[in-house]
Structure formats: structure tokens, C-alpha cells
Amino acid sequence: MGIFKKPPFNSDKKRDFPEGLWQKCPSCNEMIHNLELVQNFRVCPKCDHHFTQSARERLEMLLDPNTFEEHDAGMTSVDTLKFTGMASYTERLKSYQKKTGLKDAVISGLGQMDGQRLSISVMDFNFIAATMGSVVGEKLTRCVERATKERLPVIIVSASGGARMYEGVLSLLQMAKTCGALALHGQAGLPYISVLTHPTTGGVSASFATVGDVIVAEPKAMIGFAGPRVIRETTHQDLPPNFQTAEFLEDHGLVDMIVHRKKLRDTLSNLLGYLTPTK
After folding, report:
1. Which residues, including other chains, have CB under 8 Å from residue 52's CB and lie 6 or more apart?
2. Which residues belong to zinc fingers classed as C4-type (predicted)?
């Protein structure tokens, strides 16, 4: 009989592993340290999968340091319809406000990109899937109107699950309101660049996101109105390969160019230089 007894193997024992330090890439299954991911603009260093960026991370990436001036920061949504369900709309708003530190799903303001002043709005998918309600629509509209008044270009970075149905028809109204402001902006001879990220769907994709003078998309972003499953079940047809990806839409003329996130700032800066009228 042996002197030492081998301890039994316990497969149920959990490893002590700090939470929030590592993320698993959904494309290649690589484990990536969160610090490395942030330093790499939330792009997988192995397969180039583009993770979701917060609005503030994207503003920091795109704009010159210390040039962003936020507008309409205090606007918050109101539960006009008194929506009830598993959780009230008011409770859901408070939960996401606490979780993200945002009042709603978009940040808007003025800034500079390589010294060029612009009006910019960036949607944040972490806030109720960046759905567009009254506040999102109003902030986007004011962003465009401010640019028209000051004769500035507009950049809107979209990422959204569509219209915010907690607000019913009020959310759908924002589609027309944002497009109306952009139409007046275009009539003034001023450029609008739309940046589509993963995913951009629903009422957002059917309104301001796809009426840009130039439409830029990140690689493999899903862009469309209804989801592939809904379309397949409705039409009873097999969908084309890579349907509703940025690459598919570029081939079919909706997207003008696909730009890797690391090259996005330089590309947008060059586009602004080409399109913005000189005073």
C-alpha cells in the first residue's frame, strides 16, 4: 500500500479566474486579455473580428484629443405609453442608465478630426440595443440641425436593433424626423457620412443610416431591416450566402466602402477633406 494517497479528481471544482479580464472571440475562440483588446480598438488580434465598441471609446478613437463638446447630454426618455411587461419601461431605462453611465443610446456633440470641425453622433449598442426612441431621434436631429446652422459636416455612427417599440409610434416618427433634417442639410450643400457597424437593423437601417452621401461599413457588420430568420420564414426561400453582411451590401451597391476599424479615422478624415465645402 502506498504511503501517499492521491487526492480524488474533482471535475466540478471551479478554477479561480478573475472575471472581466479576458474575453473569448466569438469568431475564432481565442481568449484575449481585455487590456489588449482595448489597446487594439476592440479588434481580435488573431482573426480581426470587430467587437462592439462603446460610444465613448469610438469618440476617443475618431476625434482629436480634448476637442469633443457634448450637447443635449441630459435628455432622458419618458414612458408616455405606460408600458408594462416583465419590467416597466421606466425600470428598464434606469437599469441601463446605471449599467452604462449613459442617459440614452446616443452621444452627440461637436468635435474635430485632424483639425476639421464636425458634428458627430455615435450610437451605443450597450443601451437597450441602441434602439431609437424619442430621445435618440431628437438628439440625432439636433446634431444635424446644429451642423446645418454652423455649416459643418455630419458623421453618424450607427449600431442599432431598430426602433424602440416601448414608445410605439413615437419611435417610428423619429425615422421621418431624422431624414427630414438630413434632407435640409443636403440642400445646404453640406456632407453627411454614415458609418454602419454591427448590427445596424430595423428602423435605423430604413432611415438616416442609409441615406448618407457616403456610406461606410465595418467588416462583416450585419446590416438590414428584418433579420435573416424572419425573411426566410416569410419568403420560404433560401437566402444568398453572407446575406445582410457589409460585404454583400457593398457588392449590391448599398455600401460604398468597407473600412477596417484601425483605418476608419484616416478614411473619414480624408472623406471630410474631399466633401466639405471651403469657406
Report:
1. 42, 125, 126, 159, 197, 198
2. 25-47
> pLDDT at position 47, please?
95
Q: Strand 214-217 vs strand 192-201: parallel, antiparallel, or unpaired? A: parallel
User: 220 to each of 5, 17, 50, 122, 243, how far by Cα in Å?
Assistant: 54, 31, 8, 19, 10
pLDDT band per the 50, 70, 90 thresholds, residue 114: very high
pLDDT at 21: 87
> Domains, the chain, ranges and CATH?
18-51 (no CATH), 53-275 (3.90.226.10)
Could you tell me the pLDDT band of residue 14, with boundaries at 50, 70 and 90?
A: very low
H/E run at residue 118: strand 116-123
Distance CA 33, CA 142 (A): 38
Annotated binding site: 25, 28, 44, 47
Model confidence band, residue 229 (pLDDT cutoffs 50, 70, 90) = confident
- Count the helix, strand and coil residues of the chain and give each as a percent rounded to the nearest 5: 35, 20, 45
Model confidence pTM above 0.85: yes
Q: Computed from CA positions of residues 73, 78, 84, 90, in that sequence, does the dihedral angle turn out positive or negative?
A: positive
Residues in the annotated binding site for Zn(2+): 25, 28, 44, 47
Residue 153 · residue 275 · CB < 8 Å: yes
Q: Grid cell 425573411 — which residue?
A: 231
Rounded distance between C-alpha atoms, residue 210 and residue 215, angstroms: 7
Q: Which cell numbers in the block locate residue 21?
A: 479580464
